[in-house]
Amino acid sequence: MASGIGKHKILNVGPTEPWSVREKLCLASSVMRSGDQNWVSVSRAIKPFAEPGRPPDWFSQKHCASQYSELLEATEAPKSVLQCVHISVCRYKK
Predict the structure, then answer these.
(1) CA-CA distance, 43 to 57, in Å (whole number)?
(2) Which listed residue, 44, 59, 80, 92, has the most CB atoms within 10 A of its CB?
(3) What is the pLDDT of residues 16-28, one digit of tens each?
(4) Model pTM greater than 0.70?
(5) Domain ranges (residues) in the chain
(6) What are the residues whose beta carbons fall under 8 Å from the beta carbon of 51, sequence distance 6 or more?
(7) Which domain of life is it from (predicted)?
(8) What is the rounded CA–CA span in Å between residue 88 and residue 42?
């Protein structure tokens, strides 16, 4: 049996282009409302706020979870600081 066949890491399935600051704020805001275990709701809530030209699966459940994980790893602030991001950033489209 060959090792490594069929094994995937969630961080390798995400988009190759970086998310915009606005998309990241919408993600954090949606996670604040829906929780970090309800990726169906998070994904559905932020789809209308995609930057122009994004592929249809840009805000898939796996991509949202992966991006949120990266946001948490990238910050040195405690998770509670991220909760202040829930301001109405995502309510208004450009």
Answers:
(1) 10
(2) 59
(3) 689 999 999 999 9
(4) no
(5) 19-90
(6) 20, 22, 23
(7) Eukaryota
(8) 15
